[in-house]
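The pair is quoted verbatim underneath.

:::
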Amino acid sequence: MPALTDHLSRSKTALLAELAQDVSDLHVLEAIARVPRERFVPPEVRSHAYENRPLPIGHGQTISQPLIVALMTQALTLRGHEKVLEVGTGSGYQAALLSHLAAEVVSVERVDDLALRAERALAALQYTNVRIHVAGETLGWPDEAPYDAIIVAAGAPKVPSELVQQLAVGGRMVVPVGSRDLQELVHVARNAEGTTLRILGSCRFVPLLGAGAWSTQVLR
C-alpha cells in the first residue's frame, strides 16, 4: 500500500504539471490537487488514476480524461457563489471538483448503481454541498432551476433547449455537441436576448440520452 500511495503522489504531481500547460485557472488546478481521483475509480484501475486519460467505471461509462474535465470546469468561470447542475454524475469525480468551486452542486445520473456509488464516495470524503438525483424523463433537474452554470458529461446531437431553459440569465453551460462518436465542446452563454455559442475544441463522450438528446435506442 505505501508503494501505491507513493506512486499516486508522484503521478498526481506530474499530472498537475501537465495540466498547467493548458489550464490557466488556478482555482481549477487547486481543486484537482485537492480531490483524490483514485477514490472515484474501481480498485483494478486505481494505480492509473492520475494518467491523463479516461478510465472505465462500469456500465459502459468512464471517468473523463483529466484535461477535458479541467478545461470544461475552467470554461464555467466559477467564483464560489454559484449553483451548478452537472448532467451525468458518473463516478462523482467532477461533482467533487465542482464542490470546491461553487456553493451548491446538483448532479443527475441515469444509472442507479453509478449514482449510489458516487453518492457513497462523496459522503466518505465529506462533500456536503453536492446532491445527486437519479435522472427522470426530462434532461437535467428542472425542480431546482435556474442554475448559474451547467456542465454536461455526455454528447448531444444539438444544444439541448431543455437545459438552456434551466440556465439563469447570465449563466453559462458547457456541453459536447456532435455525432454519437465525436463532438465539439460548446460554451453556451445565456443573456436577456437569447444565447451565444463558442466552440472550445474537439472531444469524445458517451451519448446524452433522453428527450431533447439521443434516443435510448442508440444503446441497442
